[in-house]
Design goal:
The complex is a heterodimer.
Chain A: H1 3-41, H2 50-57, H3 59-92, H4 98-106, H5 113-124, H6 129-137, H7 151-174, H8 180-187, H9 192-220, H10 224-229, H11 237-247, H12 251-279, H13 288-291, H14 298-328, H15 337-342, H16 355-385, H17 389-397, H18 406-416, H19 430-453, H20 456-464, H21 469-497, E1 508-509, H22 514-522, H23 527-559
Chain B: H1 2-16, E1 28-33, H2 41-51, E2 54-59, H3 63-72, E3 81-86, H4 90-95, E4 99-100, E5 123-135, H5 136-141, E6 162-165, H6 171-184, H7 192-201, E7 205-207, H8 210-217, E8 227-231, H9 234-240, E9 251-254, E10 261-270, H10 276-287, H11 289-299, E11 302-303, H12 312-317, H13 329-348
Parallel strand pairs in B: 1-2, 1-3, 6-7, 6-8
Antiparallel strand pairs in B: 3-10, 4-10, 5-8, 5-9, 5-10, 5-11
Helix pairs in contact in B: 6-7, 7-13
Classes of the chains: A mainly alpha, B alpha/beta.
Chain lengths: 562, 349
Amino acid sequence: MDRSRTALIWRYAGRGLLLTPLLFLLVFFFYPLGSILQFSLAPDGKLDFAAFQQIFSRPYYRETLWFTTWQAALSTLLTLGLAFPAAHVFAKYQFPGKSLLLALATIPFVLPTVVVATAFIALLGEDSALNGLLMKVFKLEEPPLHLERSLKIILLAHIFYNYAVALRIISSFWSNQSQRIQEAAQMLGASRWMVFYRITLPLLLPAVTAAAALVFMFCFTSFGVVRILGGLKYATLEVEIHYQSLSLFDLPTAGALSVIQLMTTLVMMIVYTNLQRQMTQPLNLQSSRQVARKPRRWAEKGWLALNLIVMSLLIFAPILALIERSFTLGDGGFTTRYYEQLQENPHRSIRAVAPVAAIQNSLEYAFFVTIFSVLLGTLAAYLLSQKTRFSRWLDPVFMLPLAASAVTLGFGFIITLDEPPLNLRSSYWIVPIAHTLVAMPLVVRSVLPSLRAIKPSIGEAAAVLGASRWQRWRRIELPLITRSIAVGATFAFTVSMGEFGASSFVARPNQPTIPIVIFRFLGQPGLANYGQALAMSVILMAVCAAGFVLIERLNRAVIGEF
Amino acid sequence: MIMKRLFLALFVFTLCLPALPGAAQEEIVTLVTHDSFNISEDVLKSFEEETGLKIEILQLGDAGTLTNQAVLSANNPLGDVIFGIDNTFLGRALAGDIFEPYVSPLLEDVPDAFKVDPENRVTPIDYGDVCLNYDLRYFEENELEVPTHLQDLTSEAYKNLLVVQNPATSSPGLAFLLATIAEFGTDGDYTYLDYWQDLVDNGVLVVEDWSSAYYGEFTLAGGDYPLVVSYASSPPVEVLFADPPVDEALTGSVIGDGTCFRQIEFAGVLKGANNINGAQKFIDFMLSKEFQEDIPLQMFVFPVNPNAELPELFVEYAQIPDNPAQMTIEEIDAGREQWIQAWTEAVLR
């Protein structure tokens, strides 16, 4: 075969390949979603605007939309404010236990809200040790912290859940950035703050905004945190959609609210993707090994310590409280009996699952989800990094799965994926597909900033020297984006392990995962059940932490460290 | 090159996924049910061996989600037989026209009170009473009398002691709301909404779901509320899963007249099912003594078949109310959404 034909085949194959993520979205997102919205809003083929009119005529919904937006914005600001300094520390310094700490920081993402709520109340509730201490120290009559069912605890939980999203995305981008421009600026007499404000921050903005967009989306569609921790006086649009579609079975109103939620987020994502495109520029990238070094002066060590302390209070304290509870629940002091009980099936019921089986089921799903979303998400990032009008329009579209209400999409699956060749609604694959829809945007947002930062001149130079398209990808591009792919893979794995979002409303065969088992225990009275739910949560955390470390290792082994 | 092949293979694999053949269409009966469905391994196995049928279980969230999804898939059902729609949601399912009528030969043993559908589209399988539970130790230590009527809960003695679930999102929450509606009515000087206003003034706490109430707020699990809406079967289950084991009850049920609401769970053959014959056999099986006696310890509800013997645990620790609140399917169906909405406006917003 001559060179030009090979090149042509590569080009067409490449284009076809790039369109697969779009095809995936069309089939498993837009088709079910569009069908259920049509079914809800235009049952007779004619669009009925009555539901919209009713919604707009009531101030309650406006207030809800407003609350949804500002609490998400505030949560995002707080999360980034805390995660950004930590990202600096993780990108710039080497210190023992770094990858383990990063793994632990990601754990909250998988924990069920009910379980997190008990940890938060144990730490910060009226009867908590912290309140007791404050009362003693300041000689107060009343406990000073009133966090139960408050806005503060919603914000705190949003930070707890999303901290790692911001930390990982920003620090991975940061850790490949060359310091040359900064060093040059310092040589020319710029102060450290000047360098940070005028050079470092602008260069980091693509990653910072990507993280902000994701955190915002998660908080915007927040459901469990708002209702279970915040209490019933707070409601987001997502809460209203659940209420309308599940409690009242008022599909037109639920559909109209879903459309409003999608449109609101779409507008925000259009603004964000355009901003991000303008901010992104090719950068000098460097191996993270060269960027990170040991902290030297006392100031640096202090800064590192300060960030680790904040992280410990925010993330590790609730996790430790959970672990502690799983070993001390009941009256008798330290015990491992809840872990032992997990192995037993005294009532010989079909629902009982050995923890090993649940772990296996979870890992199986997570394996597929990680592979699907890394492949599709990376391809999507390539598609979006092209400088065409088409990809400019597509960019916000790839964020939409995060904006769709889980219940709406679940209903969409029921009515659309019911016939061959898409007879999937009760198959094994529906769960991994639902997870992948949520995980793919995370991979896209992780990979896209690094992909856009690659200087085209490197590839051109290699091409001039005779490197094929494949060689250029394998030897140049892949190493440059591998760190962000690993970040994306970690999130995909996490989304699946935590049974995040859309999968709660799909029909599932009897293949219980760890979170499902936790929910089963929490659905029954009796301290043994509660204890086993806590024990299972600890197992979930351990399995996830092991998974994160493994992904990191695998990534290094396959592609090498960069 | 290995990488390339690996990626290619994975990619082809993903494309082929939807095309993978499902299980062979042998004698399979697909049971569509809620997350709480449970049964002993032996009991299910003996049924499968006897009939040569294979039961596949598909779980679809709570009873409300199950109902909605079944109605949405009316044209192309998710399975052959459905179990777990209760009387609080049955009207929605009947209106959705999702059932194929069936009269099981075993139905004649079942008391008439449970047979709510004259057209026999659904078959009653079990019942359970949603009742207030109280923490025995708390009530003893504080020398509190156990309330006997709903109205008692508005008195000073029970201020800040009661936690209930949101009727919009929780099945026991809805049942308790229905009990208050049956007791106080929707019109007159003092309606259910007035009662709820009094409950709010008396410090009732409303939370999202049963788990948040029972494990988050009930004194037994370390919370501050010694009165919780739960089930009449919770006290025996609490003993069953007590840790360390106990021989005395930890909680009790309030079973005064009209304080509890009886939920009846139904099974039905789904219209358009692949295996109607198998679905009917499964319904017969669910009414059989073997399955009915298995119900209490697996699903913590009571059998409708009077021939089924209750386990000792239930005889000893479960209190069954003589006069739970009554409401017909038609009444519930006509009012449900409206009541939930009115309640939400009055109590939450």
